[in-house]
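Explain this record to help learners:
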Amino acid sequence: MDLYNKFDGSGYNINRLNSKPKKKKRVIVHLTRLVYEKCSTPTVVFRGKLWAILTLNNWMAFQLIRFLNKQLKNGRKKDKLMNRPFNDQPIETLIDQNLANEGTVLDLRLKYIGDNGMEFLSNCAKLVSLRELKLERNDITDKGIQILAGSTILTGIKSLNLERNSIGDEGVRSIALSPSFSRLTSLNLWKNKIGSDGAKAIADSLILGNLQRLDLAKNKIGDDGGKALAESQTLTSLKYVDLFGNGISQETQEIIKESLNFKNLQHLVLE
């Protein structure tokens, strides 16, 4: 008599043996595989290669895998909850709630406003006095940055935080060429999708000559991008530069360290 044929969702089939119910069989459960394929939450993470070789009867084997699968499903639900956008409010409300210092600072970090939100920001008259804009982790792409760069309202920004978005070379080029960003003194592009062309656009920019702080860590500018920054004739006001995690070789790192163009540099992060 079959009590069960398979357990749904786990990927493991358990067929009851034709022998007596009390007869035991060996069930091999690769817990590491289960955890890393199905779930990333700490509650059921078993680090390293852990094999559990269990000698159980059929009923206990079924109960074990059912329990594991339940934990994994709960873990997936928790992951989805943790990764959901942190707001479900319209952009107008977010601006009203997060605009501070007499309209000079707007903190929209982790609000997931996307490129559509950028379009609203770029045309929002109440942001005409904005000096600091924080947009970390907002699902912004090159399109959103191009919209921002074309704004005729946001022309006085001095500090721009675009950390952890999806901005590539085209988006950076828009910043480097836009007169709207001529007052920028701080530009944070940590962990985006910027390559050597993006770094070259910053290095050659006549608009970004007032930059004092530049964060390009966790991108992909490589040796070519690093050399371009070191040879820049316009980024002479920089005091802080972070290029960590960009695949820059030791040789190029030495070139950057010895660059005479960074005459005012006080802090340099390369590794």
Summary: The chain has two domains: 24-82, 91-269. The mean pLDDT is 80. Residues 24-82 form one domain. The two ends are 64 Å apart (CA to CA).
